[in-house]
Amino acid sequence: MNARQPCDDFRLLSSNPLVRLDGGASDLSFKVGKRHLNGAGTLHGGVLASVFDSALGECVYRQAQHSGRPAALVVTTQLDIHYCAPAHVGERVAVAVEVLRLGGRLAVATARASVAERLVGTATGSFYLTR
């Protein structure tokens, strides 16, 4: 497979609310909706995990493209998440991503999700860059 495939189908199926990464930016945000909730009425951890995975992978992909080390695909090899506080319906969750290391075939990135000053969760991911 030499070209990236669209991932909108999974995002719709999984309720992943990832909305945008502007240009080469490493920040995004989404508004928590009712379909993103768990049984306790707060943001489902699986939705946040999906957001982290998508945001981290997309930022690694974009940085690889801009750095002259383009990858056909970026595949998650490890994702570590720490859930810190709940997020509720109507709240805007901001996700900031930083690529810590971009090698020839492997990359490591970290992300923080927050509502205003409240830290909702953090994630660190390792990624394999295919050619």
Write a concise keyword list for the protein shown above.
about 130 residues; alpha+beta; 5-stranded antiparallel sheet; 2 helices; about 20% helix; elongated
Structural class: alpha+beta
Uncertain regions spanning at least 5 consecutive residues: 1-10
Shape descriptor: elongated
Rg of Cα set: 14 Å
Largest sheet: 5 strands, antiparallel
Strand order of the largest sheet: 1-3-4-5-2
Distance between the termini: 9 Å
Calculate the mean pLDDT score and round it.
Answer: 84
SSE topology string: HEHEEEE
Helical residue percent band: 10-25%
The counted number of beta strands is 5
What does this structure look like?
The protein is an alpha+beta fold. Helix content is 22%, strand content 37%. A 5-stranded antiparallel β-sheet has the order 1-3-4-5-2, covered by helices on one side. The chain is elongated. Mean pLDDT is 84; it is low at 1-10.
Would you summarize the structure shown here?
With 131 residues, the protein is an alpha+beta fold. Helix content is 22%, strand content 37%. The protein has a five-stranded antiparallel sheet, covered by helices on one side.
Q: Helices, strands, pairings?
A:
Layout: H1 8-14, E1 27-31, H2 45-66, E2 74-83, E3 92-102, E4 106-115, E5 118-129
Antiparallel strand pairs: 1-3, 2-5, 3-4, 4-5
